[in-house]
Each structure stands twice: as C-alpha cells, then as structure tokens.
Amino acid sequence: MKYLESFELVHRDLAARNVTVSEDLNIKVADYAMFCEEFVGDYHVVADGSRLPLRWMSWESLLMGMYSPASDVWSFGVTVWEVLTYCLAKPFEEMSDDQVVANASEWRCGGRGARVPAAPPPRCRRELYDLMHECWRREPSQRPRFHDLHRYLDRMTHGYKPPANR
C-alpha cells in the first residue's frame, strides 16, 4: 500500500479478503474478492447495481464518493482489526447496512456519537489498537500515511523472526 500511495493510487477495497500471504510471509494486495461468491455478503448493492464494501469504507468515501490514500488508510485500520480477529467477525457486525450509513453520517457531522468500526480484539496490544484509531481519525489529512504506518509497524516488530518451515 505504501507503493500505491507513492503514486497517489487508491485501492478502494482494502480488506483481509483481498490480501494473500505466501509461505515465506510475503504479503500481496489484490482486488478479486468482489467477484468471489464467498464474499458476496461483504458488499452492499446500491441502486445502480454497483457493490460497495461499506463496512470497510471511510465516511468520506461512503457518503461523498471521495477516495484517496487516506480513505485506504481507514480501510487498513479495519483490515488490521480483521487479521487480529482471525477474520471471524465483521466490522460493525451488530449493525444493519442502513445503520452503518447512519453512523458514517455521524462522522460527517463532526464525529460526536459516531462509532469506530470495531472494539479492540482480544489480546490486542494497546499500541496496535491506538494505531487503528489513528487510521480512523475523522479528518483524512490527520490520518497517518502508509509510509508512516510501515515505519511504525517495522519498529514494532523489529527483531521478529518467523519460525522456520518444518
């Protein structure tokens, strides 16, 4: 995502369903989940027939159709949460699609009373949940850039070596 951001390119559907991890832990971001039957429930069909991943979308993308690297950062925060929950839950799971849109309207009107996409996952380090909250800042210009997120996560995991393949 840092690479896409460097060209001001926007993904628009960053979610765990669009991420693959190889055996040697290389991560690739794709964009094929919208066409998989398995993920049809992750998308809301709008009047013109297009599908939106509204539970992963920033308020400005959902309500105003404004997409930017900052809106991808919002989705990244949701994706980190998904990974930490082993993808066993969805953001705003207890809300209907209409309630998710109403919540986005709260964000648009100043954020008071608006809910973040998800509560802290079990055993989530406070620093990591705080990072998610940084991704969910109301003002897109106040969200971290992927360059900064990469640097922070790199420092957080400094010295980590994955177990050798057996």
Automatic annotation (TrEMBL):
Natural source organism: Loxostege sticticalis (Beet webworm moth)
SUPFAM superfamilies: Protein kinase-like (PK-like) (SSF56112)
Record-annotated Protein kinase domain positions: 1-153
PROSITE patterns: PROTEIN_KINASE_DOM (PS50011)
Name this protein carries in UniProt: Protein kinase domain-containing protein
Domain of life per record: Eukaryota
